Amino acid sequence: MLVALLFSPPVTNLAQLLLVIVVLASSELRGRVLLACRQPLVIGALAFYAVLSVGVIYSIASPSEVLGMWSGWRKLLLLPLAIALFDEPRWKLRLVHVLIGVSVASALASYFGWLTHTAFPVPSQQFGIVIRNHATQGMIFGVAAFAAATLGLRPAAGSMAERLFFGVCTLLLVVNIALVTPGRSGYVVLLTCSLVLVAGSLFVNRTVTLKSVLLAVTTFGLIITLLAVSPLSRQRITQGLDEAETYHQAHTVTSMGIRMFFWKNTVTMINERPLFGYGTGAFQEAYRLQIDGKDGVAGTLTGDPHNQFLKIAAEHGLAGLAIFLAFLASALAQRASAPYRMLGLGVLFAWCITSLANSHFSTFSEGTFIYLWLGAMLANDNDAPLKRPS
User: Fold this and answer.
1) Percentage of the chain with pLDDT > 90?
2) What DSSP element (H or E) covers 345?
3) How far is 258 from 246, CA to CA, in rounded Å?
4) Other beta carbons within 10 Å of 115
């Protein structure tokens, strides 16, 4: 499913269906899923899904929009499934290896497309983009670089050859984000995860060594330097800041400029219905009423304000937002072993920051990935391993 997620939504949906069928057909898996529902992260997810279900009742949106949004959030249910399947460190490690392997292979293909001006058959049709779009590619490469660096720096990494291998993987992915993949979300994920890596080396790991700390700090410094000197990353960051500063003067829609209008109007919407909001799937209809009479860029209609937290507050009120935040915070109560706890929480922190300017907890690719990843990485270690075919 992880591989399909990066390239094909239909195949991903099929994989999810097959996973559900397998779980339903296995009494052992059904029992493990029920046990997973006792873990804090799943309790939080189910509580928020209950909010979404209640929001269906009073939504001002059409039935099709309500059903579409409610159904779209079903990706939350991947959490108990992933927790049930990945509650052993060896299976967590295998998933991390798969992510790194697929990402590095994709990065190599990306370099080829970028250097030869070859467009791959993906929706964006940009040179160097091999995963569904540049934003998703940058974020996934950022997570994979974080995972590779974490495995390379951990005390149990093994031989020098293994450390060197993970170091090369990290370098390939980081350079691709800086030079090839023009996604600001990728920069944010990379920087956030790098900070978590440094913090983990300093404060979390029980076997802290001067060498591991120096390597982590050096890695973070190199990433900052690379993003600072790369013409592509500098241009994308500067462009975003300029668009945000001059949004009132813009006569055309720009990526960051239009977000300023979205956020301002959404805050007004929240003020009008602060407690419970407009209901599940009602954002676009409520926004349509909010911009009635406005023209030009300010009158641009949207179904997504490009801020996950504002969108939830608009549809489900401050009460719904509080439950969503409690769900995210419940990840801290998971008792996963190292280094998987850091891998899970680091990516969660990164998604929280990118979701200040996007809705990455509810979009298809990013949302599906985060719930699969959190479930797998943060699953409490099980003393009764699942019986798997040899």
Assistant:
1) 68
2) helix 340-354
3) 10
4) 11
Are 380 and 336 in contact by the 8 Å Cβ rule? The answer is: yes
Residues 6+ apart with CB under 8 A from 61: 69, 278, 279, 280, 281, 282, 284, 285
Count of positions (residues) in the chain:
390
Preceding peptide of 155 cis, ω within 30°: no
Nearest to residue 46, comparing CAs of 2, 20, 83? 83
pLDDT in tens, 15-71: 999 999 999 999 999 999 999 999 999 999 999 999 999 999 999 999 999 999 999
Q: Rounded distance, CA 67 to CA 72, Å?
A: 8
Alpha-carbon dihedral sign for residues 353, 367, 259, 311: negative
DSSP summary character for residue 221? H
Location of structure tokens 């001059």: 246
Mean pLDDT by 10 residues, the chain (390 residues): 86 90 92 95 97 97 96 95 94 97 97 92 84 92 96 77 92 94 92 90 64 75 83 86 81 87 95 97 96 88 96 98 98 93 97 96 95 96 56
For the record, the structure tokens of 31 come out as 């029992």
Task: Give 330's DSSP letter.
Answer: G
319: tokens are 């009460």
Q: Which of 131, 13, 48 is nearest to 368 (CA)?
A: 13
Q: What is the 3-state secondary structure (H, E, C) of 155-214?
A: HHHCCHHHHHHHHHHHHHHHHHHHHCCCCHHHHHHHHHHHHHHHHHHHHHCCCCCHHHHH
Residue-level pLDDT at 226: 84
Radius of gyration of the chain (CA): 21
CA–CA distances in Å: residue 172 to residues 179, 183, 269:
11, 16, 44
